[in-house]
Amino acid sequence: MSADLQSLHPLEIKVLRADGSELSAAKLLGKLGLGIGQWNQATSWLLGKGLLEEKERLLRVFYELTELGEAQRTGGTPEERMLRAAEERGAMSLPEIAASAGIESREAGSAFGQLSREGLLALDDRKRVVVAGTTRSKRMETTRALLDRAASGALEEAALSAEELAVIAGISRKRGAGSAAFKIAEREEVVYRLTSEGEAARRQLAEAGSSGEEIGRLTPDLLASGSWRGKSFREYNIAVPPARILVGRRNPYAEFLQWVKDKLVSLGFEEFDGPLVETEFWNGDALFMPQFHAARDIHDVYYVKEPSHAKAIEQPWLDRVAEVHESGGATGSRGWGYRFDRDFTRKLILRSQGTVLSAKQLPKARIPGKYFGIVRCFRYDQVDATHGADFYQTEGIVLGEHVNLRTLLGLLKMFAEEVAGAKEIKYVPGYFPFTEPSIEVHIRHPKLGWFELGGSGIFRPEVTKPLGVDVPVLAWGLGIDRMALMQLGLSDLRELFTGDLEGVRLRRRG
């Protein structure tokens, strides 16, 4: 026997040595003593080695008992129970016989209709249900036989007679099978045949007397019992490469996110979180973004279709924020000078920025305090190496009497250098409706060049005062996906979510 055949697994040998020119699970599972998982594994290996090829695919239809079918098998069908009640208790009205048979009113009407058409039950002159003279129904007998047979396993369509098929068609469903006794299941069966190389392998295995039943490992139990005597053992093939051991580990990006969380917690930050679906109020209005701002364009956010609006916005924040938009309130600002739309503010969207959680944190934040979140956001955007329609931000706020721009620049430097691992950083003046001053931090990627890491600033009084905070608040929203590009040595955001497992296994955080 050749070295290649010596490396065959016992499951592969059993399939190769099986009788017949056509190999299928339906014919061979029982004969070979294999489970469906073992069959699939063996055929997959043999296909890969070119010893087996696919001949055809057959669609097989099966009828499986539903919960309703099992209940009818053990307790009787509505027709059986109604007929039995009529025989045992005599004439009754339809509601009375339904109650006696223990069936629902909607079932009782259809059951009586079927039985009356077959001449088993009828109504007397007082509109009572009575036995019509015969209690035998071929259809009911066939139904009972089908239910009892199905208790041992699914019924294959090809094995049913024409009469059985006619009966089961009326009590089975392909979809919505909860209202029927049987569920229709379609299974595709693959029929294989040996290739010329597979035929040659079969002959060599037969000549060598290899059956696939050989013992592959000598265990203490075999030695102690002596059952190894008279058995055949598989030959060792020292040329076979060892099995690859894949050590379990976290996804690199998930590991990176956890590392960032641990780092911020170690610096005294507390983590916050919130729902993916937010209102326009928290996503924009509470951040002093005017309701007519360009960022409110439908092409920038994803609106929820159903339900489209929240029931209400928390008070007193709604009234305070509305006042600031309209006149500035007690913030010293003139506001935006328009009539605040209290219906628009209840619109539901997928949050488009992590700052929404910073706004929601302000009413319950301690002073001084430091908070952060790893926040998933959604925006309608062109997907490329540095943009995605579904992305993560690291969002945070620092509250205190003595925090200032220098404090903020120190935090941005920490994120850019220690978290992202950037060597070149620059700060650019920016504009956000909710911060003043506003700063963008940019880093230089070795392949992508300069790109924005995110925005930051000091919250305006129009944001903090309506939400009950009267001290300076530093805020930032940085693209943690982009930080991961630098830290993991990648050049495309899409690589963070790739299905390439080999690439994922090789990736490490720097």
Describe this structure in words.
It is built from 20 helices and 16 strands. With 510 residues, the protein is an alpha+beta fold. It folds into 2 domains: 65-187, Orthogonal Bundle (Arc Repressor Mutant, subunit A); 255-506, BirA Bifunctional Protein, domain 2. A 7-stranded mixed β-sheet has the order 7-11-12-16-15-14-13, with helices on both faces. A 4-stranded mixed β-sheet has the order 4-1-6-5. 36% of the residues lie in helices and 20% in strands. The chain is flat and about 95 Å long. The protein has helices at 3-6, 10-16, 25-32, 36-48, 67-75, 78-89, 94-101, 105-117, 138-150, 162-169, 196-208, 220-225, 252-266, 280-283, 317-327, 355-361, 405-419, 461-464, 480-488, 501-506, and strands spanning 52-65, 121-123, 129-131, 155-156, 172-173, 182-194, 270-271, 277-279, 302-303, 348-350, 369-378, 390-399, 425-429, 435-445, 449-459, 473-479.
What is the topology?
Layout: H1 3-6, H2 10-16, H3 25-32, H4 36-48, E1 52-65, H5 67-75, H6 78-89, H7 94-101, H8 105-117, E2 121-123, E3 129-131, H9 138-150, E4 155-156, H10 162-169, E5 172-173, E6 182-194, H11 196-208, H12 220-225, H13 252-266, E7 270-271, E8 277-279, H14 280-283, E9 302-303, H15 317-327, E10 348-350, H16 355-361, E11 369-378, E12 390-399, H17 405-419, E13 425-429, E14 435-445, E15 449-459, H18 461-464, E16 473-479, H19 480-488, H20 501-506
Parallel strand pairs: 5-6, 7-11
Antiparallel strand pairs: 1-4, 1-6, 2-3, 8-10, 9-10, 11-12, 12-16, 13-14, 14-15, 15-16
Helix pairs in contact: 6-7, 6-8, 7-8, 9-10, 13-19
